Amino acid sequence: MGPLTGEDGISRCPWGGGPGVMRDYHDREWGRRVSGESAYLERLTLEAFQSGLSWSTILNKREAFREVFHGFDADAIAAFDEADVERLMQEPRIVRNRMKIEAAVTNARATVALRDVEGLEAFVLSFAPEDPPAWHDTAEMATTSAESKALSKELKRRGFAFVGPTTMYALMEAIGIFDPHLLGCFRRGSA
Q1: Exactly one of 15, 29, 55, 154 is catalytic; which is it?
Q2: 40 has catalytic annotation
Q3: Is residue 159 left, alpha or beta, with left meaning phi > 0 and alpha meaning psi from -120 to 50?
Q4: What is the dihedral of CA 62, 43, 79, 126, to 10 degrees?
Q5: Is 47 known to be catalytic?
Q6: Single pTM value for the model
Q7: Whole-number Å distance between alpha carbons of 98 and 106
Q8: How would you class 154 by CB atoms within 10 Å of its CB: exposed for 0-12, middle for 13-18, buried for 19 or more?
Q9: Of residues 174, 164, 147, 145, the one with CA closest to residue 43
Q10: CB 98 within 8 Å of CB 89
Q11: CB-based contact 100:85 (threshold 8 Å)
Q12: pLDDT of 116-172, one tens digit each?
């Protein structure tokens, strides 16, 4: 399926066609570069929490995630202990999955450790594809790439968790490492 024209007369990737949180995310954020450690850690964390769920579920809980994870400040999250994990397991405004919560803490600690090398942002950007994809319709779209597989492998080697190749591909799309919009989508080329 190619881009769809919404009731507002604008052509978008099909998943962002209807009014609401998904369209807002598509139009304002998806595929746009972010900067700074906390922005990268937020996206990495939310992509991990999304695994097995709909993205709209995560978007609807995003403000609560930001609150309970202290604006995705790596130092603050890295200091979480078992009591903090238990507190988050009782927090109804977020996804209460122990493995994902523990992965968020693990990833914050790994992010802090990565500062001694190049930092999370530079590290993730170093896996940008040399030949970015350009799709006409959703049937052509991939869910992994050689770059997302390499990023996943290297993040795991550096102590990160819940960073599989599909999750890392979604991260690369979300933060605009390449333009993920379909050809014909009004956002294509505007990142």
Answers
A1: 55
A2: no
A3: left
A4: -170
A5: yes
A6: 0.94
A7: 12
A8: middle
A9: 174
A10: yes
A11: no
A12: 999 999 999 999 999 989 999 999 999 999 999 999 999 999 999 999 999 999 999
CA quadruple 36, 38, 40, 42: dihedral sign: negative
Q: pLDDT tens digit string along 40-69?
A: 999 999 999 999 999 999 999 999 999 999
User: Topology of domain 18-174, per CATH?
Assistant: Endonuclease III; domain 1 (1.10.340)
- 47, 121, 147, 173: which is the annotated catalytic residue? 47
- Residue among 166, 190, 114, 141 at smallest CA distance from 14: 141
Query: 100: which 2 tokens?
Result: 């994902």
d(CA 60, CA 144): 25
* Amino acid found at 41: L
d(CA 45, CA 100): 8
103-130 burial, b for 16+ CB within 10 Å, e for fewer?
Answer: bbbbbbbbbbebeeeeebbebbbebeee
Report which residue type is found at 29. E
Structure tokens at 179: 């333009």
Which residues, listed in sequence order, are joined to residue 4 by a DSSP beta bridge?
A: 12
Question: Is 63 in the active site?
Answer: no
- Torsion angle of alpha carbons 104, 110, 115, 121, nearest 10°? -50
